Amino acid sequence: MAQKAAGGASDGGVSGPQGAGTLRIAIRVKPGSSRTSVGGTYPGGAYGGDGALIVAVTERAVDGKATEAALRALAEALGVPRRALTLVAGATGRDKLVAVKTPPNGLIGRLAALRAG
């Protein structure tokens, strides 16, 4: 899979090498959902050329609660500790760019499965 920088990525909003360094993932947060879930692709988005991974959370977008809930849900879905995720951009918007520090092997496959819904 070709990896490109986040600004104009044609790889589904994912950039960076797998297994080393940092991997960036474009997500679209849906606050106030009836249940928390991670899966599906939001077409477009500010950081993903081919769309962003959808992260639905029950928390409302107040005082960063939805953002923190989205990062927790994403970490759980990816099988990484929450401390491995860093918000790079999008603190106050629905579109966010998240960095995964030292992504484990197999993460690209997990992301592909989540994006497929």
Q: What features would you highlight for this structure?
A:
alpha+beta, 2 helices, six-stranded mixed beta sheet, globular, 117 residues, 6 strands
Shape estimate: globular
Proportion of β residues? 25-35%
**Strand-and-helix sequence, N→C?**
EEEEHEEH
What is the helical fraction, as a range of percent? 10-25%
Calculate the terminal CA-CA distance, rounded to whole Å.
19 Å
Tell me the radius of gyration. 13 Å
Average pLDDT, rounded to a whole number, is 84
Give an account of the 3D structure.
A hairpin with a 5-residue loop joins β5 and β6. The chain has helices at residues 65-78, 107-116; strands at 14-15, 22-30, 37-42, 52-56, 85-89, 95-101. It contains two helices and six strands; from the N terminus they run ββββαββα. The longest helix is centred in the middle third of the chain and has 14 residues, at 65-78. Strands 1, 2, 3, 4, 5 and 6 form a six-stranded mixed sheet that branches. Helices cover 21% and strands 29% of the residues.
